[in-house]
Design goal:
heterodimer; A: 84 residues; mainly alpha; 0% strand; elongated; B: 184 residues; Rna Polymerase Sigma Factor, Chain: A; Glycine dehydrogenase (chain A); RNA_pol_sigma-70-like (chain B)
Chain lengths: 84, 184
């Protein structure tokens, strides 16, 4: 999805910015666009609220994952064990 | 009658992160946790024939993992491994009632409950991740949990940044829905 320079954005674009913003990757202009949309669009507000809550939950849970490279090693080992 | 089947080839993709999270809160060391998860899979392979299919594959693997964690604590002979419940309060009337004082909740130790809640939340998140399509789940995990750069993920999967955000958007929507159903 492309971003525009117009400060009025569509609902879909606002959701896209909101997603990026959860990872701190929205630009200053995008944040202004999102905030403006939030003022008058109920759908964007609901999406934003839910999205923020998801981010907070993931942070709170302190969830972790095994590195992708490590998983490959584990797969390899398991495969060796399977074919023994 | 067995209703659940076993497929070791899919174990790492399906369960390794779930088992890893279960372990990490108990051993607090990434490397040891990874080793324990790997050992669990090996032990699972060995005892595959004993799997009756009454429980789900994941529940069965967790039951093996629990033994592995206990064995680990025994092996390093930690206080946790030696911990046993020993209560020998005398019936002496002079000391009667002492236990009451000892058992009063410690006001500074109020974290246990929230820790348990956070662990359960972590496992609930993993259950929801399991329901996502595989590619979505992998990318979502890399971006959200492991904090990879957008560019790094795009290179790894040979996709554009727009593709990535579409995948993230779908994953986030599904995750929020799933957690709403199962958590709050």
């Amino acid at each position: 999805m492309k971003t525009t320079n117009n400060i009025f954005v569509s609902c879909e674009q606002a959701k896209y910015i909101c997603d990026k913003n959860q990872y701190g990757e929205a630009s200053a202009l995008e944040i202004i666009q999102l905030n403006l949309r939030l003022v008058y669009c109920r759908v964007t507000r609901a999406y934003s609220k839910r999205n923020t809550k998801l981010t907070q939950m993931i942070e709170k849970s302190n969830i972790q994952a095994i590195d992708v490279s490590q998983k490959k090693v584990m797969k390899q080992k398991l495969h060796e064990e399977l074919t023994k | 009658m067995s209703t659940n089947t076993i497929d070791p080839n899919s174990w790492i993709d399906k369960y390794s992160d779930y088992l890893f999270n279960y372990t990490i809160v108990r051993v607090d060391d990434r490397e040891i946790a990874q080793d324990l998860v790997q050992e669990t899979f090996f032990a699972g392979l060995k005892s595959m024939k004993n799997f009756k299919g009454e429980a789900s594959e994941r529940t069965w693997l967790i039951s093996i993992l629990k033994r592995k964690i206990i064995d680990y604590y025994r092996k390093i002979n930690s206080n946790k491994g030696k911990a046993e419940v020993r209560i020998n309060y005398s019936t002496d009337s002079e000391t009667e009632g002492d236990w009451l004082e000892e058992r009063v909740a410690d006001p500074f130790d109020g974290n246990a409950e929230s820790e348990i809640e956070n662990e359960e939340l972590g496992l609930a998140i993993h259950s929801c991740l399991d329901k996502l399509p595989e590619k979505q789940a992998v990318i979502f995990k890399m971006k959200t949990i492991q904090g990879f750069d957008t560019e790094a993920i795009c290179n790894e999967f040979d996709i554009t940044a727009s593709n990535l955000w579409v995948i993230i958007h779908r994953a986030r929507t599904a995750m929020a829905e799933c957690l709403e159903k199962n958590w709050y």
